Structure prediction request, 109 residues.
Amino acid sequence: MTNYTWTVNTLWTETVDGQQDYVVIAAYTVTGFDGAYEASLSNTATFSTESVTPFIPYEDLTETDVTTWIMDELGTNGVNSIYACIQGQIDSQINPPVVPVVTPLPWSN
Prediction:
């Protein structure tokens, strides 16, 4: 069974209506762990000042707050898509695909 960890790597902020430090972009990484196998996916999420309510002062934010915003922005389908992509990477590590090789033509000796 794969376990997933969300990590927020970077936050971008801007001032809106005199209120400083609205988070408008978050860079994140989702990592899946399945025993000895690991895979990850990194991306950014963009927020409007209206989509993140209530306002939390920047210095009071937690990684859980921002991760919740990211997951809300992605929606259930987006989160499941990320998990499926990571699981596909892990599955390919567990059962590597057969890679064809170029073989010399038998008549070209």
Remarks:
- Residues 3-94 form one domain.
- The chain has a mean pLDDT of 91.
